Amino acid sequence: MDPRILAEFALGRRVLQAVLGDITAERVDAIVNAANSKLAHGGGLAGAIVARGGVVIQEESDRLAPVATGKAVATSAGALPCRWVIHAVGPVWGDGGETPSLRSAVRASLDCAAELGATSIALPAISTGIFGYPKKEGTETIVAEARRWLDRHSDSSLMTARFTAVDELTAGLFADAIRLLATSVPKSGV
Q: What is the pTM for the complete model shown?
């Protein structure tokens, strides 16, 4: 599947994009994996990343685990077209404190990318799969937090943030969240 940009929002020289496509095929510096705290990449997006990128990603993850909810760590990308995989641990819906934890996972991912010197990153809909976070609220939170992070870190290397989903529903919700940015003033976050 060739990636298709569904929406785009410019922040000066920086850009946020909603993309319908396969995150494992994204040609960016770093992709984000929606990980569990054990960094056990058996299924879902994590499984697809290891299947395409190779066992080296799991081996490196094993040395970094466990990772707390709201935090992120990076590994190499193996055979993926990107340079790094950032493993972000989002919240499980119903555990309490979901929105602050999701915001923290997004910030930790972007912090990690900036520390690596990445100029581009692709993020999935963290926690909205098996972890049960409602997709609409999750995609809006992820996009809004990324925008806040970029506003606060004008000196970072990150220039492009792509919100990538393989399914039309989630990619469409990312597009809606980006279009919402064009009509709203950034709010200060926690």
A: 0.94
